[in-house]
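Re-running ABC transporter ATP-binding protein to confirm reproducibility after the cluster update. Everything else is unchanged from the original entry.
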Amino acid sequence: MPMLEIDDVSVTYGRTGRFTRGTAHLAVDRVSLTVERGQIVGVVGESGSGKSSLAKAAVGLIRPQHGEIRLGGEVLPRKRPRAVRRRMQMVFQDPSSALNPSLTVGQVLVELLRTGGMDRSAARSRAVDLIDRVGLSSSALEAKPGSLSGGQRQRASIARALATEPEVIVADEPTSALDVSVQATVLNLLRELAESLGLAVLFITHDLGVVQRLCDDVAVMQKGRVVESGSTAAVFETPSDPYTKQLLASIPTISARTS
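Result of re-run:
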């Protein structure tokens, strides 16, 4: 059974009432995809294709007007209780979205862990484990986000996401603001976490090179719809949709995927 199922989901922005005209925008149009445990599925498309709206619908930040989101086979309610929200976490392009700039990384982690029921001592110990898990030194716990590099902040953001022991991570352009060399370390971290923890990862990006390097499967979105999907190798080697072919032709040489 897939861990994350997005089934016939549509997202519309603006008013859609009977007496309104021209004010609604269909951002996601009946999209379906699944993510298994330990699998990374990429969603790729140009700006405005609907991929970020799909990500937000998956984690409950916006409510789809049609379709279902299922977690481990369970249909998720439109208004999600805290216990469900803890099972799905989002990693954003800008890690500042998840890290309070006035607190140290350690304080951010400890506060989150304590809301989950840990006492302060256990939370501090767990924070040390989390920061080590994402490849940061323990000194990062005493640092405020603004004093860290972009790559370090994104790793700290991933540590925060892991604090709730989620089953699903939705990553929305998490490496697009990073230098290429730093991107590689974050991508390798996500791959290692998916495999070692059995996480289901939905990875949103506009970068086809990142998709080829990281993702097991890929869905190509255009104007709110999935126009092509399948294993990454198959889609890249024998694309069938004209839009996919256009995307692939628009980039220079794509380096081969590495582990």
